[in-house]
Design brief:
Elements (H helix, E strand, L loop, with lengths): L14 E4 L3 H10 L3 E6 L6 E6 L2 E6 L7 E6 L7 E2 L5 E6 L14 E3 L6 E2 L5 E4 L10 E7 L3 E2 L5 E4 L2 E8 L1 E6 L6 E4 L3 E3 L6 E6 L3 E8 L4 E4 L22 E3 L7 E3 L4 E5 L11 E7 L6 E3 L6 E8 L2 E4 L4 E3 L4 E3 L6 E4 L6 E7 L8
Parallel strand pairs: 1-4, 5-7
Antiparallel strand pairs: 2-3, 3-4, 6-7, 8-29, 9-10, 10-11, 11-19, 12-18, 13-20, 14-17, 14-19, 15-16, 15-18, 17-21, 22-23, 23-24, 24-31, 25-30, 26-29, 26-31, 27-28, 27-30
Length: 358
């Protein structure tokens, strides 16, 4: 029961469906797993309240559309049916397939000057792949301008892969069976496996992340029955074929990359993600250096400039500055030149095939 408010104290909620002939409807809804909670009048029933599958229905005479009832079922789907009162009953899969879309590769350049737009919960969103490469991938620069506690709830995502890199500031996160809440800070990268329950607790002012997910359109589902943190610690637990993994910038191991004065550090996400996605940090060790790279054979290769300036060598070339982003299509050679002191780049590959050694 909820607390009394502007509409009084609410004890329950019912969806009302018009029903002129009660008995055959009770037979059908009973076969579908609903049970009678109330019925009246006793001598000649004309109305009834039913409950089942987390839903309460009220069948009673009266005007109104018969509506549609969707039942989420396991196993093979079946054709819809129509109840005696006209209500259409649809049987939908409880865990539908994740639509990936037909991958359509192309080069993308998303300059920081394009700016961000207001999104949910007071956040600012900047779309890094406007056409979603056919619906396969979405990438966003997400900013929390104000900071402070976040009005989030325990939730999870139904998708194939999701990587989050902290661009600036920090946030406090908590994940299912991964221990106490922790700080996710600038330069850190994490793999958020499918279906893992999690919650954002608070952020610093100006906190921002770069988030990449596949497919572009996916479900976010609430879990109102789970409290975080849990009393279990299972760092190797598998969620949807993947494991949670956090790569700290403070613990990064840098190795020389190529012959042009660059260094690279892998985030180590290929194995936990089952080869679905990987990230690399790239930085300049000798200003003015250049770098030529062979074509990749995956799908997504996204670069995001964290700091400094350089020139992207593809096509006619593009000048790069902080918060610029780009996508290199498969089969295209590319490179960097004239990298200035302090240049830092995040590279994300999906699948996790990319010619940078650990």
């Amino acid at each position: 029961m909820t607390e009394a408010g502007a509409f009084g104290r609410v004890r329950a909620a019912e969806v009302v469906l018009p029903c002129a002939d009660l008995e055959p409807c009770l037979d059908l809804f009973g076969a579908l797993g609903f049970r009678i909670e109330a019925i009246s009048p006793a001598d000649a029933p004309r109305a009834a309240s039913l409950s089942g599958h987390g839903l309460r229905l009220r069948l009673e005479p009266g005007p109104g559309a018969p509506g549609e009832l969707r039942l989420l079922v396991e196993g093979p789907s079946r054709a819809p049916i129509t109840a005696p009162n006209g209500t259409r009953i649809v049987f939908a899969p409880a865990e539908p397939d994740i639509p990936g879309g037909a991958f359509r590769p192309r080069f993308v350049f998303a300059p920081a000057a394009e700016g961000a737009s207001p999104g949910r919960a007071g956040l600012l969103y900047r779309d890094l792949i406007p056409d979603r490469l056919g619906g396969r991938y979405i990438a966003s620069h997400i900013i929390a301008p104000q900071g402070g506690p976040v009005a989030d709830w325990v939730h999870f995502h139904r998708l194939d892969a999701q990587l989050i890199a902290c661009r600036s500031g920090w946030t406090r996160l908590v994940y299912e069976d991964q221990g106490e809440p922790f700080l996710f800070a600038a330069g850190d990268v994490l793999l958020q496996p499918p279906t893992i329950r999690h919650r954002v607790l608070e952020t610093s002012p100006g906190f921002a992340v770069v988030e990449i997910a596949s497919p572009a359109v996916h479900d976010t589902l609430a879990d109102h029955d789970l409290s975080l943190p849990t009393d279990r610690l299972e760092p190797n637990r598998v969620y949807g074929g993947q494991r949670f993994s956090l790569s700290r910038l403070s613990e990064a191991v840098w190795r020389p990359f190529g012959t042009g004065g660059f260094e690279a550090s892998g985030a180590g996400l290929s194995s936990p993600s089952g080869g679905r996605i990987e990230a690399r940090r790239l930085r300049i060790a000798a200003p003015g250096s250049s770098l030529s790279l062979e074509p990749h054979q995956g799908e997504l290769l996204l670069g995001y400039v964290f700091a400094g300036r350089s020139r992207l060598l593809i096509g006619d070339g593009f000048d790069l500055a902080a918060d610029d982003a780009f996508v290199i299509p498969p089969g295209e050679p590319w490179g960097l030149s004239e990298a200035a002191a302090g240049f830092e780049l995040l590279l994300v590959a999906a699948p996790a095939v990319y010619p940078i050694s650990e």
